[in-house]
């Protein structure tokens, strides 16, 4: 983070966030929550292929990925984001048992989660990058 006064007042105000979530209501809630914490732009995608393409070519500062996208693990999307040094966090309703051990250091939100959990997860993802 910088010492810019605007950034200090609104630390997430510059963030462009990719959200890949296959449940429409959860995705819209995530989008609203990210905007509420001050993120500048949120792109919401629901399909694995769209998420992977966005991870390969999109201009993002952070990503929030559902672990299971209509039965397909989102781990290749996470790996692509990591290769591009884009911080990320996972959201899952399945617990730690469904996680890929290679990605165990990535902050993970357990669904359902609170606003404060998301805000803390964003901080953790950004600090870990």
Automatic annotation (TrEMBL):
Keywords: Phosphoprotein
SUPFAM superfamilies per the UniProt record, alphabetical: CheY-like
GO term, biological process aspect, one: phosphorelay signal transduction system
UniProt modified residues of type 4-aspartylphosphate: 66
Pfam families on file: Response_reg (PF00072)
Keyword Phosphoprotein: yes
Domain Response regulatory as annotated: residue spans: 16-126
Protein name (database record): Response regulatory domain-containing protein
Organism: Stutzerimonas stutzeri
